[in-house]
Amino acid sequence: MINQLKDVVTGSAEIAKAMGVTLKYFFKKPVTHQYPDEPVEVYPRFRGRHVLKRYDNGLERCIGCALCAAACPTDCIYVQASENTDDQRYSPGERYASIYDINMLRCIFCGYCAEACPTEAIVLEHDFALAEYNRWDAIYTKERLLQPHDPSYIVLRSDEEFKLAETWGKK
Ligand code: SF4
Ligand code: SF4
């Protein structure tokens, strides 16, 4: 009988304790983010989706040297370089990347590619909305990577990017 009373008292105390915790948070502002309707903040050094940068004059920073591919520990970057000509100039150097692919399924977002790049062409920015409907779309081509910084990076992809993704793999 005494043991049963002890159990009742102990149980009641535990319930009161738990209810205390519940009541403590009941009146606090909820921390749930209504993503993607509301922006989500990330730390400044967060490493997300890659972007290939341009210079202010529009020329591509990438010179096709493939140092990023050499530095990548998961071998997920493929670079094919081609020569610039006076008629068709893409970058300030002799060569440019005619093909630049990153397989995002293999990327571990270590940032070594950005560290190795001599022209600061490849940068890991803050976009983390990287879900795809099929694995082919997870291979980001130069056309998808080469873009000016989009401050609305956390909003779902643009129609243009969806169209590019649809055509990829059918070439
Ligand atoms: S972040 Fe790391 S794993 Fe991803 S592409 Fe760059 S070097 Fe490779
Ligand atoms: S992104 Fe940088 S390291 Fe990679 S090929 Fe272009 S210039 Fe070279």
- Principal-axis shape equals elongated
Percentage of β-strand residues: 5-15%
Question: Looking across the biggest beta sheet, what order are the strands in?
Answer: 2-3-5
- According to CATH, what is the class of the domain at 50-167? Alpha Beta
Structural category: alpha+beta
What ligands does this structure carry?
iron/sulfur cluster
| Poorly predicted residue ranges | 149-158
| Major β-sheet profile | 3 strands, antiparallel
Describe the model.
The chain has 171 residues and is of the alpha+beta class. It has a domain at 50-167: Alpha-Beta Plaits, CATH 3.30.70. The chain is 28% helix and 14% strand. The chain contains 5 helices and 5 strands. It has helices at 2-26, 67-71, 112-116, 142-145, 159-167; strands at 50-52, 77-83, 95-103, 122-124, 139-140. It has a 3-stranded antiparallel beta sheet with strand order 2-3-5. A two-stranded antiparallel sheet has the order 1-4. The longest helix has 25 residues, at 2-26. It is elongated, with a radius of gyration of 25 Å. The N and C termini lie far apart (80 Å). Mean pLDDT is 85; it is low at 149-158. Residues 71-74, 76-77, 102, 107-113 line the site of one iron/sulfur cluster.
